[in-house]
Amino acid sequence: MTMKNWYSGGALVLLAVLFLSLTMLSGTLLTGARVDLTENRLYTLSAGTVNLLRGIEEPIRFEFYFSEDASRELPQVRNFARRVHELLDEMARRSNGALEVRRVDPRPFSEEEDQAARFGLESVPVGRTGDSLYLGIVGTNRLDGVEVLPFISPAREAFLEYELARMVYALSRPEQPRVGLLTGLPMDGGFDMQTGQRLEPWAIYEQIDQMFDIERISPSATELPEGIDALVVVHPRELDQALLSAIDQFVLGGGRLLAFVDPLAEADPGPDPSDPMGALTAERFSTLEPLFSTWGLVFEPDRFVADLGQALQVSMQQGRTTVRHPAIIGVTQARMNPDDVTTGELDTVNLASAGALSLGEDSRLALEPLLQASTQSGMLDAERLRFLGDPSELSAEMAVTGDSYILAARLSGPAETAFPGQGGADSGDINVIVVADTDLLSDRFWVQRQRFFGTVLLDPFASNGDFVINAIDNLLGNADLISVRSRGVSSRPFELVDALRREAEQRLRATEQRLEAELAETERRLNELQQARGDADLTVLSAEQEAEIDRFMEQRIDIRRQLRQVRRDLDRDIEALGTRVKMINIALMPMLVTAFALWLVWRRRQRMRKTRENVA
Q: What's the CA angle centered on 204, arms 198 and 206, to 5 degrees?
């Protein structure tokens, strides 16, 4: 073997040793280090979390309870636990020593397991022996404050940073902010008169209660509690003038207000909750007059926004095909204010029978839209929704104006009192958020409840809860937690495909309505023929009846053919769109890279040719 071969072989061995050494060292020295290449940097601490950590004044301790032995045969759980621990370590590092992280293994029959049970952590039986698996966090401070995550579900990893940041936020404050809640809806659960059972509180009520100290205010009250930091008013109806004056003075004095009004509140039980028919006929609109008029805010409590562009699909009866409901809309990111921290990075907010907000010409306030309808919308009378059978009827009745109606907005600027001469402030700068819908607070429009080993988990399918908490947080002046919360949603709808489907549905609706009309006419004709015959044996069909049925069968076959053709056209449009996207991803980018490489080769040859010419 030549000396050159010896050198080559020795170099390969040396490279192999260096590679193994670096691999071992990286596993030890670079634990937790990573390069985050995700678009939204989901695995990097947000600026809001860092600000919260640096703002800790009193030491906070996080104890991470994780069962090592019970999880040995669960690699996915162990990987998730490692992710949790790495995130906790990163938070501790960025807190400059204010956050202490301690890992606890609650082995069976140990003192650590007793502590876990005392803090209310959930244990999950796993394996054949039924060992208890703990995966939770207990946060404490020096003021006896305690925050607990009973069980961290791997399915909610996207919300992990927010949950931890929320615990830091709660433990770093000496007292929870006091939020006054004035509501005409049973948000705290109430009592079901028909079943005689206590109802669960709304999910949004529970979230507000977790974040803030709720001070309940009766709609029959005549004054506001002292010392509240913000006021949330939901569906105000028939408020005493003294209470309206107190709200007026609270806002003019710098108090923050979040108001939810509605042309038709579906969750309003009516004056007598035990009478279900009374809820259908009772007035269910709400407004905050005369404050709105004094501020110059225009809101029509008897009209709602019908929106074809953001209408959601609903099923009116079991077994029937879903239809687009123009009164039930899902406001997408395209119709949210991207520059406001309340809506900047939300996904979808679902509303029902929402009203429209605008400013009068004489108003001195600034109105900043937060949620808006699409340009395919119009206004209809709210009474039309009381006994609506077919939502598609609204599409034919509405006149699309091309306006993008404002559904929620921020009001700020100088305002006058609505009750002059009563001894209070005559004017002041206000900071108010008004939402022209209350139904978005109901569970059925944004969240599902799931029970996981005795723990109730909230599975949101829309950002309604985030929107409400963000609004209260913002009014209280804390934007850091909002920026963390916004990171939880990363869904990106295929808007072009959705537009193609909507267009096809418009074409389908006419044929479906024609089929139903012809079916009803045929059945009416058959009934008339049966009554005219008067025979006792109604199972025997006359020639005229058979001809009528044959005619209907031919019509049904023809309509089905048309429906199939429309669906084929829809599929062809979507497949063509998919093909174009694939061509861009598969062919266009490599072609651009190849063209760039060829250009570099050409430039290099040009330079070499010029160099040779200069030398010659």
A: 60
Please name which of 560, 549, 540 lies closest in space to residue 522, comparing C-alpha atoms. 549
State whether 420 and 376 are in the same domain. Answer: yes
pLDDT one-digit tens code per residue, 74-103: 888 999 999 899 999 999 999 999 999 999
Helix %, strand %, coil % for the chain, to 5? 45, 20, 35
Query: Which whole number is the average pLDDT over 455-468?
Result: 86
Bridge pairing between strands 357-359 and 178-183: unpaired
> Do the beta carbons of residue 374 and residue 307 sit within 8 Å?
yes
Report the C-alpha gap between 66 and 149 in whole angstroms: 12
Picking from 439, 471, 491, the residue at the C-terminal end of a domain is 491
Most confident range (mean pLDDT) of 110-119, 167-176, 555-564 is: 110-119
Residues 110, 68: Cα–Cα separation, whole Å: 14
Q: Is residue 8 part of a domain?
A: no
Task: Give the torsion through C-alpha atoms of 552, 556, 559, 560, to 10 deg.
Answer: -170
DSSP letter at 601 equals H
Q: Dihedral sign, CA of 416, 419, 421, 422?
A: negative
CA angle, residues 68, 41, 48, in degrees to nearest 5: 90
Q: Give the pairing type, strands 146-149 and 427-435.
A: unpaired
Contact criterion met (CB below 8 Å) for 147 and 171? yes
Decide if 306 contacts 327 (C-beta within 8 A). yes
Report the alpha-carbon distance of residue 118 to residue 65 in Å, rounded: 13
* Residue 602 included in any domain: no
Q: How many CA atoms lie within 13 A of 150 on its CB side?
A: 13
CB 474 within 8 A of CB 344: no
Token pair for 457: 């988990």
Q: What is the DSSP letter of 177?
A: P
- How distant is the alpha carbon of residue 414 from its chain centre? 33
Residue 611 included in any domain: no
Calpha distance 437→372 (Å, rounded): 12
Q: How far apart are CA 257 and CA 434, in angstroms?
A: 8
CB 106 within 8 A of CB 134: yes
pLDDT at 261 over 80: yes
Does one domain contain both 182 and 230?
yes
CA dihedral 51, 54, 57, 61 (to 10 degrees): 100
- Cβ contacts of residue 58 below 8 Å, gap of 6+? 98, 141, 142, 143, 172
Give the per-residue pLDDT at 155: 74
Answer yes or no: do 397 and 471 share one domain: yes
- Give the separation between CA 127 and CA 108, rounded to whole angstroms: 14
With a cut of 60, say whether residue 274 has pLDDT above it: yes
Q: Give the integer Cα–Cα distance in Å for 340 and 567.
A: 40
Close Cβ partners of 215 (under 8 Å, ≥ 6 residues apart)? 178, 179, 180, 181, 225, 228
Whether residue 469 is found in the same domain as residue 509: no
Which helix or strand (DSSP H or E) is residue 418 part of? none
What domain range is 110 assigned to? 47-170
- Residue 529 and residue 474 in one domain: no
Residue 259 main-chain phi, psi, to 5 deg: -115, 135
- The string of pLDDT tens digits covering residues 303-324 is 999 999 999 988 766 656 778 8
